[in-house]
Design goal:
With 541 residues, the chain is α+β, with helices and mostly antiparallel strands. Helices cover 23% and strands 29% of the residues. Belongs to the metallophosphoesterase superfamily. Purple acid phosphatase family.
Length: 541
C-alpha cells in the first residue's frame, strides 16, 4: 500500500501535545488540566457540521432541529457532489497522475468549498463551542487493479471465528478467503457474500464479507482475499486472560489520526475497540474508501470492533437517504450472533468469556419499550459474573462529561439505561464524541459510588474538527472528574487476571506515545471487593 498523502503545508505540526498545566487535587490524585501547545495562535469558531442533535425536550425544539438538519442535509449533498470530483482529482495527483497543477487546483477548490460550508454551518449553529483549526486530511490512494482487495478489516464472530471484510472496484470479484498457519500454504477457504450501495451520485465497489473458522486462539494466520490480493496476516485473540484492548474514539483521517495509528502499532495488543465516529466522511462517500485504506495495516491484523457515532448517520431525509447506509454496509458487526436485530448495537465475548463487551447505539432508540433496551436487558441477564469477571460497555455520546462540548447529549440515554448497567455491575463505560480525554471515578446517578462503573471519555483519536478545549470548573459533575486533558491519543485496557486490570492513556507526544494517565481497577465481580474497598473510591481503583 502506498504511503498516505498529506494534503497540507509541511509547516503544520504532525500532532499536538500539552505543555502548560495546573495541578489540582481530586480524590487523592493529581488532577491535571492542560493547554495544547498549538493553541498559542487563533482558534476558529467552527460548527460541528456532521452532528446529529442529541435528544432534545420539547416539540418545538425538535421541529426546529429537524428543519435545520433537513436544510443542512440538502446543502451537504450539493457540497458532496462538487467535492467528490475534487477528491478524485487529488487522488489522481497523489498517484502522480494529472499533474501537480491539477491536484493543487482541486485542493484549492475543495478548501474553498469547505470554507463556505463551514460558514453556513456556523450561521446555523452560532452557539457551538470553540475548536482549534481543522487538521489536513490524509488521503490514501489505491493504485492496484480493480480486482485487488482494499480496505481490509477483520472482526470477531462468536467464540472461534473471524469476519474478513474488504472492497474491490471490480464487482465481479469472488467473495472468498483462503487461509492457513504457514505463509503461502492455505489449508482452508471460505466463501461469503458481497453487496454495493448507492449514495447520491456515488456507487460503492463490491463490499465483501467472509467468515472464516473455526480458528485456534492466540494463533497467527496468513490469508488472502478474493484469490487476487496480497497475503495478509492476522492473530486471533487469546482464549484466556491476560488480554490487551486498545480503545480509541473519533478517529477520522488526518495527520493526527496517522500519528495515533502509528503509536498504536508501536506496541502489541489483541483487539481494538472504537466507540463511534470512524471516517468522518459526512456524506462524502470517497472518504469512506480513503479511511478504509488508511486503517488497513492495523485493521487487517487485529480485530476492530466498532459502534456508530453521529458522523456515521449521513441521513438526508429530504432526498430519501436512510441513516447509517454506508456504515452498515462496510462495518458489519456480530449483532445477529448476540441476538440483536440491529448492527448499531451488539455484544461479544473476549478472552474465552472472561470479558463481555457491550457495544451500545447512542443513535438507536433506547427508551423504555425500545428494541435496544429490551435487548440490553436480555444480554446483561445472560452474563454470569462468576465466569465473566469483566463487563465493559462502549457507546458514543458520554453520559458524564464536564467538557463544554456536547453538554447533555447523553443525558436521555443515561436516564433510560444507567440503572441496568449499575445492577449488572459494569466495570467500565467508554465513550467518544467529545474530542478530549476525561476519566471519572466510579459513578452512579451523578454521585460517587464504588459499585458503579468508571466512566472514560476518549474521543481524541485524531478527527478533522480538532480538540474540545474547555472543561467547566463548576460543572455539577466536576467533583467526580479525576483526570482531564485536551490532547490526541489512545487508551489501553489490560485485563491482567480475574480481579485486576490496568488502564493507561497515551498522549501523542512527538514521536512517542507518552503515558499521561494510569489507574488500576478491581473487578466489581471480584469476591475480594470488600466494603472498605468500595468506600475508597478512586484511590484504590
Amino acid at each position: 500500500m502506498p504511503a498516505p498523502t498529506c494534503l497540507s503545508p509541511p509547516s503544520l505540526p504532525l500532532h499536538h501535545t500539552a505543555i502548560a498545566s495546573t495541578s489540582l487535587l481530586s480524590g487523592g490524585r493529581r488532577h491535571r488540566r492542560s493547554r495544547p501547545r498549538h493553541m498559542s495562535g487563533l482558534v476558529l469558531l467552527k460548527a460541528k457540521a456532521g452532528d446529529v442533535d442529541g435528544h432534545v425536550d420539547g416539540g418545538d425544539e425538535r421541529l426546529l432541529a429537524t428543519r435545520r438538519h433537513a436544510v443542512l442535509g440538502v446543502a451537504r449533498v450539493l457540497f458532496a457532489a462538487a467535492n467528490e470530483r475534487c477528491l478524485r482529482g487529488m487522488d489522481r495527483a497523489a498517484l502522480g497522475c494529472g499533474g501537480f497543477l491539477a491536484g493543487a487546483m482541486a485542493n484549492s477548490w475543495r478548501v474553498l468549498m469547505q470554507g463556505l460550508a463551514s460558514l453556513m454551518f456556523l450561521c446555523a449553529r452560532a452557539d457551538e463551542y470553540v475548536r482549534q483549526p481543522p487538521s489536513p486530511l490524509v488521503l490514501t490512494a489505491h493504485d492496484k487493479p480493480a480486482a485487488h482487495p482494499q480496505q481490509v478489516h477483520i472482526s470477531t464472530v462468536g467464540r472461534d471465528k473471524m469476519r474478513i471484510s474488504w472492497v474491490t472496484d471490480d464487482r465481479s470479484t469472488p467473495s472468498v478467503v483462503e487461509y492457513g498457519e504457514s505463509r503461502g500454504n492455505y489449508t482452508a477457504s471460505a466463501t461469503g457474500d458481497h453487496a454495493t450501495y448507492k449514495y447520491f451520485f456515488y456507487e460503492s465497489g463490491a463490499i465483501h464479507h467472509v467468515t472464516i473458522g473455526p480458528l485456534a486462539p492466540g494463533t497467527t494466520y496468513h490469508y488472502r482475499c478474493g484469490k487476487a490480493g496480497d497475503e495478509l496476516t492476522l492473530r486471533t485473540p487469546p482464549a484466556s486472560l491476560p488480554v490487551e484492548l486498545v480503545v480509541i474514539g473519533d478517529l477520522g483521517q488526518t495527520r493526527w489520526t496517522a500519528s495515533t495509528l502509528a503509536h498504536i502499532g508501536g506496541a502489541d495488543y489483541d483487539m481494538l475497540l472504537l466507540p463511534g465516529d470512524l471516517s468522518y466522511a459526512d456524506t462524502q462517500q470517497p472518504l469512506w474508501d480513503s479511511f478504509g485504506r488508511l486503517v488497513q495495516p492495523l485493521a487487517s491484523a487485529r480485530p476492530w470492533m466498532v459502534t456508530e457515532g453521529n458522523h456515521e448517520a449521513e441521513a438526508l431525509p429530504v432526498v430519501g437517504f436512510a441513516p447509517f447506509v454506508a456504515y452498515n454496509a462496510r462495518w458489519r458487526m456480530p449483532h445477529e450472533e448476540s441476538g440483536s436485530a440491529s448492527n448499531l448495537y451488539y455484544s461479544f465475548d473476549a478472552a474465552g468469556g472472561a470479558a463481555h463487551v457491550v457495544m451500545l447505539g447512542s443513535y438507536a432508540e433506547f427508551e423504555e419499550g425500545s428494541a435496544q433496551r429490551a435487548w440490553l436487558e436480555r444480554d446483561l441477564a445472560g452474563v454470569d459474573r462468576r465466569r465473566t469477571p469483566w463487563l465493559l460497555v462502549l457507546l458514543h455520546a458520554p453520559w458524564y462529561n464536564t467538557n463544554q462540548a456536547h453538554q447533555g447529549e447523553g443525558e436521555a440515554m443515561r436516564a433510560a439505561m444507567e440503572s441496568l448497567l449499575y445492577e449488572a455491575r459494569v466495570d467500565v463505560v467508554f465513550s467518544g464524541h467529545v474530542h478530549a480525554y476525561e476519566r471519572f471515578t466510579r459513578v452512579y446517578d451523578n454521585e460517587a459510588d464504588g459499585r458503579g462503573p468508571m466512566y472514560i471519555t476518549i474521543g481524541d483519536g485524531g478527527n478533522r474538527e480538532g480538540l474540545a478545549l474547555k472543561f467547566l470548573d463548576y460543572h455539577k459533575s466536576a467533583h467526580l472528574s479525576v483526570f482531564q486533558e485536551a490532547s490526541f491519543g489512545h487508551g489501553r485496557l489490560r485485563l491482567v487476571d480475574e480481579t485486576s486490570a490496568v488502564w493507561t492513556w497515551h498522549r501523542n507526544d512527538d514521536e512517542y506515545a507518552t503515558v499521561r494517565d494510569e489507574v488500576w481497577l478491581e473487578s466489581l465481580a471480584s469476591p475480594k471487593l470488600s466494603m472498605a474497598a468500595v468506600g475508597r473510591q478512586d484511590e484504590e481503583l
